[in-house]
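Hi there,

I know you've been waiting on this one. I reran it after we fixed the sequence typo, so this is the corrected version. Both the input and the resulting structure follow.
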Amino acid sequence: MEILFIAHRAPFPPDRGDRIRSYNVLRYLAARARIHLVAFTDDAAEMNAADRALVDECVLVPRTKSRARAAIEALAHGQPLSIAAFADRRVASAVADIVARRPIAAIYVFSGQMAQYLPVDRPRTAMDFVDLDSAKFAAYADASRGAMRWLMRREARLLGDYERAVVTRVDASLFVSAPEAALLPGSDVLENGIDTNFYDPATPALQAPHPLIVFTGQMDYRPNVDAVTWFARDVLPLLPDAHFAIVGRAPTAAVRALAGKRVTVTGEVADVRGWLAAADVVVAPLKLARGIQNKVLEAMAMARPVVASPAAGEGIDHAGAIRIADGAADYAAAIAALLADPAGAAALGRAARVQVTKRYGWDARLAPLDAILGLPATVRAAA
């Protein structure tokens, strides 16, 4: 069986939320079929020999379109900016070429922007929206003013129309959580998982100040930037003895400006597990969060006590093994209680590890793809 996998970003390396999901889906499919990958990339050198061994054919297209050009095209053609930003003849040509010369039995599309490349005559197709982008832009609009609010509302409206049209063209529309899927009728859930062998509580901890509060994530992603800015400004002053570590690649100027005596901004790290192992508490104070947060699953797998916002915890079946807090005072109180009770915090972390191991193994989470794509029963030993 041969599958065409189309993605808005190359799934390698699996070092951020979307890549973790796309990589594990790709790995799962590669164990059951031959994969032809077409994806955008910011750096083709990131893909190593082991990554290439997962796919039979790989076409990586550098993203070169500027935001300004994408905005002009979107306004000129009455389309969402998100779609214009990922419109590229090179990708369309690569998809058409593969479909013309290979016996493609199924197509897996990762991220809604890439649905524009679906062939007119297509085999069984799964559209992995991951999150509902139109809802995200609607939330951005609510938090914006002036021209930016108009632009975000336009994006939310046009993307909503686009997403509803895509659902009618594919065999399965997939989202990372039930609350997300409920926003788009006709959709199904394909939850995120976690590699509980990799995220091992026995990982050695880094040397760091204590008590240590850790946040992990891609630090040029707006919800993450807003989360750490709010936490450093409104919550950390209520915890006078604690140190806050912001761990993640590409911190914006606003994030770097938070660094100081009680705040560490690491930038990209070779291995986030050392920071998680060192954490007395891991936080996920996101105001805007779609689907299942990998950062929360990773901390749970590392047996760390987690305090999450309602938005960050919403999609996770945590069975009470993480603390949910809303508002600065509530957040600070939840963290202070954990710091004051190390034995209770450790027990909470162990319960989180048990729950995530039982509930979120990748192969178990991705098993529905067998029926969705008609995958063969035999797993390829080579993959």
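Quick highlight: The radius of gyration is 21 Å.

Best,
R. S.
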